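Homework help thread (please don't just give me the answer)

Our assignment gives two proteins as sequence + C-alpha cell strings and asks us to describe the second one. The first is just a warm-up. Here they are:
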Amino acid sequence: MSEGEGMIRRLFLLLLCGLIVGCSGSADKKPSTLAPADFDEAAMDAAIERARSEVDQFIAKFERGEGSQFAVKVPIEDGDHTEHFWLTNIRYEDGVFHGEIGNEPGVVKTVKLGQEWSIPKQEITDWIYMDDGRMYGNYTIRPLLDSMPPAQAKHIRRILAEDEVAEE
C-alpha cells in the first residue's frame, strides 16, 4: 500500500469510527462521536435526501464490486435520542442492507460496536464507498465540514468526489 493509499484508508476509518455520527436530543457534554450542534440542518436534510435518491446507483456499484469499503449510514433510536451509525461489512438482499455497527455509540445504548443490524434501503441516511482514491457519497459529512478543524476538513475535501458515483 502506498503512503497516499494508507492516508486515505486511515481517514476513511476515522470517518467510519464516528467523526460524522449525528445525534438529536440534548446533552450537556456530547461524546466525541457526535456531530457538532452548529451545522445547517436544512443542508443535512438535503444530504440525506440526496443519498436516498441515489442509493440504487450505490447498490449497482456494490453488486458489481466496483469500489471498496462500502458502508451505509443508519439512524438508530433510543428513547428521545437518535444516533447515526455506519454499517460496515454490508450485504444487500431483497431491498434490505445487513451489516455490522461500525462505530462506538455516543448516546444510544441499544447497540454496540460490531453488532449485526439490518435496515430497508429507503431508511438509510447516507452511503459511502472508495474508488481510485476518491470517496463517493458521504453526503452527510459535507454540512459538517465548516465546523471541523481546518486541517481535518481539508483532508476530507481532498478525497471527496463531486460526482454521485464513479464513472462507468
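The one we have to describe:
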Amino acid sequence: MSSGRVWKCYRCGKDVVPGMRFTFTRNGAIHWECFRLNVSEAFKGSIPEDVNVLMELMDYLNEGIVRLRELEMRALSDGVREGIINRRKILEGEAARVMKDLESLLGSYGIKY
C-alpha cells in the first residue's frame, strides 16, 4: 500500500509510511498514536476539551485518508482511481490545516511540537 515514501517517527523511531495514520509537525513525521501520547503526557492526562475536539477531528480525517488509500488500490479503472486520489488529496490538505490549528492551540498552552 505504500507509495515508497518512508519517514521515521520522531517519537518512537519506527517507520512511518503511507497507509498508516500519521501526521507531520514542525519536528517531522510522527505516528498519530505517538502524537496523542505526546499530547496526553504534556497535559498530564487532563487534556482541554478544545484540544480533544481537534484531535478527534484529526482521527476522522486520518482514518478517511487511510481508507481512501485502500480504495485507490482496489479501483480497477484509472478514472475511478484518479477521482479517489483527488478526494484523498483534499482530505490531506484539510488534515494539514487542522493540524496547524491544533499546533497553534497547543502553543497557546505553552506546548510546542
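TA reply:
I won't write it for you, but here's a hint about the kind of observation we're looking for: Residues 7-108 form one domain.
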